[in-house]
Write a structure and sequence with these properties.
502 residues; alpha/beta; Immunoglobulin-like; TIM Barrel; 2 domains; eight-stranded antiparallel β-sheet; eight-stranded parallel β-barrel; 28% strand; binds alpha-L-arabinofuranose
């Protein structure tokens, strides 16, 4: 290895596995908030619209991201939403005040449009039921509307709306962030647990095949975290399959070193909740297991606008992403791989315009910096996650103490005989020479190396300069004796795709 500058070593062993990688870790979230649905997914006046009013450019970008599951319709919006408003003939659908975002909801896009949208982009739908102003009857009826065979009044509404066959929606959220005082119809943990358990019961009676996601804490800074999670799990354990967690990363204090070590925060949150799940399973002497659904995650702090001034689809929280945000997103995806033993679902919040990697302006579409790490990981991570051993120099951070300069995850798919190593170099100034060493079975070739990098943490893409931060493809090449040496530039995310394991 070259001896100039700092160096690091990444050791991999195909037998040191973590767990199978759930494809649902590459999900997204679409809320009736700002211009996510109207002007994002659905934009009938646009030259980009297909015959249903769905933007073709956004569909193509979501397919490029490999969005595997799409959560809908909220978010805070969910807690005031009555799904019957959004089905049936469009001209009869009511205009309503959406109290969550102080916007006007036209209901031109609802459950059937959402399910058609998911089908078009090849994503599994994840629907939420309103446990704020909604009733448990309304929750059960939505399952009936979507999943029951024809022959009852509610299922026949679906048939009348043009969908004779049940949709078979599998993933269902029991409300949204019900721990938050900002939530319409916020409840304390006990009251929520009782309501969620009863809703779950009814929903499962309509369709026993569904998977249910319980509201966990909306943030680690909530005073009730993680006690809320303990209480609701204790009441609902047998009725649910997933506990939801949410988190939005921030860099308000402009402390890039700490911000670039955000994986420490993400891992800690997973650790706490994974421990709680094990505790609860032991305490309840249960054979049932509950996994984690990180169904809202993203960077969100530069534009927190949330008051729509009673406009239709006002621009809200149209965050602009830069290089450091993209490197935080890359680490988040690495954490999903490293913790796929307990994390099975994750939804990037949100997918377009509102806190999103995609922004529309007129008929144009911008891919922001955070779009790329998502694509780089969703395309290459498959099979099982491997547990990498990383020996790297450390960097001192105010928020998390000393942290390694490299953040690493890895995967191997036996069926395609392809592997991948995902490496963030957190250094703001130093290139780092890294040796990747495979023990035992090792790849013979790097099929490709893809890198996202830049020289300034604030560098961003814009409609005028859309290619400021885009990945570059570097040549692959042979790997000799299970060892590959790479030069990792500062502020970079590199994916090494490998093949030909022997
Ligand atoms: O994604 C934006 C909002 O953030 C969601 O509506 C809410 O669940 C969270 O607080």
């Amino acid at each position: 290895m070259p001896t100039t500058g700092p160096s690091a070593r990444i050791s991999l062993d195909n037998e040191r596995t973590i767990a199978p990688i759930s494809p649902l870790l590459f999900g997204g979230f679409a809320e009736h908030m700002g211009r996510c649905v109207y002007g994002g997914l659905y934009d009938p006046g646009s030259a980009q619209a297909d015959e249903r009013g769905f933007r073709r450019d956004v569909q193509a970008a979501l397919r490029e991201m490999g969005i595997s599951v799409l959560r809908y319709p909220g978010g805070n919006f969910l807690s005031g939403y009555h799904w019957r408003d959004g089905v049936g003939p469009r001209e009869q659908r009511p205009r309503r005040r959406d109290l969550a975002w102080q916007s006007i909801e036209t209901n031109q896009f609802g459950t059937d449009e959402f399910l058609a949208y998911c089908k078009t982009i090849g994503a599994a739908p994840m629907l939420g039921v309103n446990l704020g102003t909604g009733t448990i009857e309304e929750a059960g009826a939505l399952v009936e509307y979507c999943n029951a065979p024809s022959g009852t009044a509610t299922a026949d509404m679906r048939v009348a709306n043009g969908h004779p066959e049940p949709y078979g929606v599998r993933y269902w959220c029991l409300g949204n962030e019900m721990d938050g005082p900002w939530q319409i119809g916020h409840l304390d943990a006990h009251a929520y647990a009782v309501k969620a358990r009863e809703a779950a019961k009814i929903m499962r009676w309509h369709d026993p095949a569904i998977k249910l996601i319980l509201c966990g804490s909306s943030h680690t800074e909530m005073p009730s975290y993680p006690e809320w999670d303990r209480v609701v799990l204790e009441h609902c354990w047998d009725q649910v399959d997933y506990l939801a967690l949410h988190y939005y990363a921030t860099n308000y204090d402009n402390d890039t070193a700490s911000y670039l070590a955000s994986a420490a925060q993400f891992e800690r949150q997973v650790d706490t909740l994974a421990g709680l799940l094990r505790f609860m399973q032991g305490r309840l002497r249960s054979r049932h297991s509950v996994k984690l659904s990180w169904d809202e995650w993203n960077v969100w702090y530069k534009d927190r606008s949330g008051r729509g001034n009673w406009q239709e689809a006002p621009p809200l929280s149209e965050e602009q992403y830069n290089l450091e945000d993209a490197l935080v997103v890359a680490q988040w995806l690495n954490v999903f791989l490293r913790r796929c033993d307990v994390l099975e679902i994750a939804c990037l919040a949100q997918v377009v315009n509102t806190i999103a990697p995609l922004t529309t302006r007129g008929d144009a579409l911008l891919r922001q910096t955070t779009f790329y790490p998502f694509v780089m990981v969703s395309r290459h991570a498959a099979g099982v996650a491997l547990s990498p051993l990383v020996a790297a120099p450390e960097l001192e951070t105010a928020r998390y103490g000393p942290q390694p300069l490299l953040d690493v995850a890895a995967s191997y798919a036996a069926d395609s005989d392809r592997g991948a190593v995902f490496i963030v170099n957190r250094s703001q100034s130093e290139p780092l020479t890294a040796e990747i060493a495979w023990r035992g079975v090792a790849p013979q070739r790097a099929s490709t190396i893809i890198r996202l990098a830049g020289s300034h943490v604030r560098a961003a893409n814009s409609f005028e300069q859309p290619d400021t931060i885009v990945p570059r493809q570097l040549p692959g090449g042979p790997i000799h004796d299970g060892r590959l040496t790479l030069e990792l530039p500062p502020l970079s995310f590199t994916v090494v795709a490998t093949e030909g394991y022997r």
